[in-house]
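ARCHIVE CARD
Drawer: 12
Card no.: 0347
Subject: one protein chain, sequence and derived structure
Cross-reference: see card 0346
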Amino acid sequence: EYPIPYTLPALPFSSLPGYSLTSGVTALACAIRPGEDGNLYAGSGIRNQFIRINPTTRKIDVFTPQPFDPLGDLQPFNDLTAGPTGMFFSQSTANLITHFDYTTEQFTNYPVPTPLSAPLGMVFFEGYLWFAELLGQKIGRLSPTTGSVTEYSVPLPTLSGPGVVRATFTKPSRICFTAILGGSNGCLHTDTGTFDVYPGTGIGAAVSIPGENTKDLRFDDIIYYSTATQNYINILNITSGQVSKIVEPTTVLAEPISLPFYFDIGMNYGPGKAVWFTQAISNRVGRYQFA
């Protein structure tokens, strides 16, 4: 574990009696991703600070985005991803995409054109930053060169609530994302601006809350994704559109709402030939190993 030396309180009411008993867990820090400079970076949830971790020395630096907005990330989920010159991260309630420069340690803010869009998941692909607008019902594309943002409206209701963008594909070029409110997955063709829709399957698919997606690096068309209300490792083949599911161990009832309820969110392919996933309520990390 790496204790983070925060320089701001987790919440505005941190001075309340007894608050110190819980302040370490109420910031709701969300995502952590590797940078191209060899460091790890993380968002800090409600605090709306930015974290850099040197995995070799264990040194942790905490940065406060400037100009600072205390309401910048009250949602509180946000995301970050590596670019060639720095890290991009979202300030969901401030409606901003922010860039942190590896060398200068300076912040640059890019407003999202659609008001109250709640930018969330993001990925850097083919020279652009692509991001999901959870409430704006759009996929955004940011040009780091010009600072301009282009938006693509998602098909409703199946792709409502675009949340996490992790998987990318070439031939043709696509970025793929989970639709949290629509219970589905979607892919945007980056050259045409058109969408492919992959509805969820099974009982309660509409309320399954797809979380994080991840690409199987061994194949050109396989995506794994989590579902918050169903204890599955979901496998989507974007060529056939077929969805298959692996039930997680100790699950008694898989759908419509899984029992026990594990609240799966994080999912990542690798390290190794394996899918790693988080169970927030059981406080566990799981691994599904391929032969």
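Annotation on reverse: Residues 70 and 164 are 24 Å apart (CA to CA). Residues 1-111 form a domain with the Methylamine Dehydrogenase; Chain H fold (CATH 2.130.10.10).
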